[in-house]
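quick one, two chains, predict together pls
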Amino acid sequence: MHIMSLSSPELDLKKYLEAREALIAQDRSLRRDHQEDIRPIRPESGKQTEAKELWENAGNEISASQSLFPGMGFLTGNNSSVEIFRILKKMPKGGLLHAHLDAMVDAEKLLNWALTLGAGYMHVRVDEPITASNFYLVVPEFKALVPGTTDNISLAPSLMSPSYLPKTWVPLHVARRPFSLKAFLMLKNLRGPELFDAWVTASIRIDPSEAYENMNTVDKIWDRFRAAFRTIFGLFRFEPIFRAVIKQVFWDCLNDGISYAELRINFHPLFMVRADGREDFGHREWVLAIREILDEFREELKPLGRQEEFVGVKLIYTTFRLASPEEIQFYLDDCFELKKEFQDEIAGFDLVGQEDLGEPLIKFVEVFLKFQKRVQEAQLYLPFIFHAGETLSDGGETDLNLIDALLLGTKRIGHGFSIAKHPHLLQMCREKNIMLEVCPISCRLTSSMPMHPLPAVLNSGVPVALNCDDPGIFDSMGNTYDIFQVLIASDVSGLTTIGTIAYDSLQFSELQSEKKVQALEFWKKRWAAFIDAIVDGSI
Amino acid sequence: MHIMSLSSPELDLKKYLEAREALIAQDRSLRRDHQEDIRPIRPESGKQTEAKELWENAGNEISASQSLFPGMGFLTGNNSSVEIFRILKKMPKGGLLHAHLDAMVDAEKLLNWALTLGAGYMHVRVDEPITASNFYLVVPEFKALVPGTTDNISLAPSLMSPSYLPKTWVPLHVARRPFSLKAFLMLKNLRGPELFDAWVTASIRIDPSEAYENMNTVDKIWDRFRAAFRTIFGLFRFEPIFRAVIKQVFWDCLNDGISYAELRINFHPLFMVRADGREDFGHREWVLAIREILDEFREELKPLGRQEEFVGVKLIYTTFRLASPEEIQFYLDDCFELKKEFQDEIAGFDLVGQEDLGEPLIKFVEVFLKFQKRVQEAQLYLPFIFHAGETLSDGGETDLNLIDALLLGTKRIGHGFSIAKHPHLLQMCREKNIMLEVCPISCRLTSSMPMHPLPAVLNSGVPVALNCDDPGIFDSMGNTYDIFQVLIASDVSGLTTIGTIAYDSLQFSELQSEKKVQALEFWKKRWAAFIDAIVDGSI
């Protein structure tokens, strides 16, 4: 393609405009939504061009309105009353490739299960008696205990009683009843059980005022995340609730148009609490439970005629990155054993926790190399699918995690925020089809989409999947919120872009040969029907 | 260079570490501070390696301290008491390529000149009488008037008098005297002239609390900028003050180690107020004044033996981008006429004002092409040096200004913030040596260096100059503040980087052949002396 010489400008406007079109096209030529093989995703007929235009103008329309603009914070921008959001909700989204199971369920549901499924078992504790002045700072922790346990059980009448001994367990139904504090302006003027419930859900969810005002640095927002997880863990790690969460996640996926999921599960605790209250529900049983619930779920879909809509689930084994090489070795061995038994379920290995505060990947390289050798010798396929580059650092240890993730053969990169700084690494990912799992809303590094490096990554031709990461914490289930944000913040990314992203989320999933082909074929049919429905206005 | 295959990982740690070094090097191989021809800038001897290490670790040392961290806002980070800042102040910085003359002088100096040089001439006005409730919102505007003028002159005793007619002029010495408001908590408990002066300087300077709390969107910070310029304009556009500003800018450059400057001057007003109060001091005379003051300045340097330290000054002709093609045509013609007379002084043409709100370059392409033809036919050399891509937009009109700037043969790009999204445009700039004029502190698009796309641009091998842009508004004269910010926010950018940037600021300036060679040679000598002084601790 001829680009006008810069040093001797042509003086003809027509030629100028031709050269301009060519340069814009060349600048976008690496984008996957501009590739030839994307044709099946691109609306083709004249009628479909209409849909394409409708959608590609959506960003402008929305930003012109008073209530939404592309530079707004992610959380305040979750305006699900917008027409385009309603349509996006019905988009076939392909695979969900980056989400942490323990942060995927709505806080209210989790608490409700604690009250029903956990009745008689669930207890709550805090670090100090709750007072008017520490009310918003104290973090509730939960645990299911064998009924009748007396060890470390509180005898105080309430978490607010001055006689409450720090960190002793109060039965949940006891703690809820007298939950109120005189002389203090309560959350939404609630008292008793309603106040307790509002307090617990507020501890799990991060609201916009927290994210943009109080928690306006990277470390502060991470501290807030860790507090949310302290509340979630004890609720989640009780077999009946764990099972309920899994089923709910499947339904949430289905209802959001997600047809496949690779869920990151934190295998750090060796045991959850079993249904009978004993703390001996182990890793093998977790995977078995997931397999069982998936079978149940499929049975439930059959009478609805929706069984084709959900291809399945795989698990990415994770543990915390703040660990010694010996500890990582232990979890690698555990992952290896699970893989031998659950070859279809276990898709990969990863480390979680704030990258900037955890250990860099380089610290574990020896155990990783040994692990790869062992996997190879056993003729298993068990790749790394690492978080890497979730940092603002330029050339520091966390930024260099990208280097190690790539050298260790990571199949995809979780977040990869800092990769936009690295032209060679972007090229590597493009050429070797290493996908970036981008999670706009959960991004702790930037507060709005226009500051996010996603456009640079898309323009570099690196495959991208959009993901919700921790939707329970942001009250944003499914991938619709994230896709919505990407769409309204760009004049380049439109219908073809989000279609490409959805297609790629299956293409670069760990689904294997035949199943992947089937999933892609079925997605294409749903995509075509989605486009038709937009065009004929039936959506 | 052999990079380990990703699919079949080597199992040997030593080989892994070699491959890691190679990949990091390859990822940085495009950087200009990693190029072979940078060798004269790089500290070479063993002794100098020490200096290099000292500096390249500076970022870590500083971020480890409690008071400064790389993610802090630019303005709160201006901690000039830090040792490394003091040393950087003495660094030979090469050329200052992006700064607007009317925003280059300290607010207090400007006001002081209004009181001395403007005595009897300078007047002030506001849009409405100042009250306790509008005190922080009302913007003072100034103008020098012929003594004895009665037209539009206020008869009220004060700007705070209820009898003050909006927009009528009050003599400066009259306005200052009774400047206080009862029943209102005053700025720093000042009253009278001190309060007036504090009010005016606060209107010009943007302080951190404004920038990060009240003005926390791109449009708001731009509104604040425009208000500052409303106050500056009438002070600046009075011949005696204009002359004083120029001389001061030369001294500020010299004292900051800047040896050459290309100053953007806004030629939008056809006339300034002449020393005698008449408003007929025209564009030709501005350039003549600058030429005269440069000669004076050189004479003043001779007895100090510092005449070699300042190579000279060129002007970039600018006007506002919020204009019709006919208006732009007028200013292009005016620029052309000035260039014919002042071939050495006039270096290029540019448009100023918030890009997102102004007209895009494409709107003026016809007049630009005609202009280029005319310049060529007259055998003149008068390139565009455009602001472009100072936006968060992805593929919108302002983002596409980069396309037009490049097609119109811009010699450099002012800001170019959004270019980090465009792999092909980065490649074009690298291959054609089109420099980016980066202005970290004045950046209205991000509040801190770790969010700035500079590292991506450096890693792409595009030449970069660091600039202060509007130092009067940020109270950050010279380039030291910007260089300091870049240094502490990166683990990659060190002494060699900032040396390369300084070298390139002369290399890609509009200095012509022989003068450029001399400037570069002299800079290299100063750089070597600077390194020596760091090493022997004499700095």
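Residues 415 and 443 of chain A are 8 Å apart (CA to CA).
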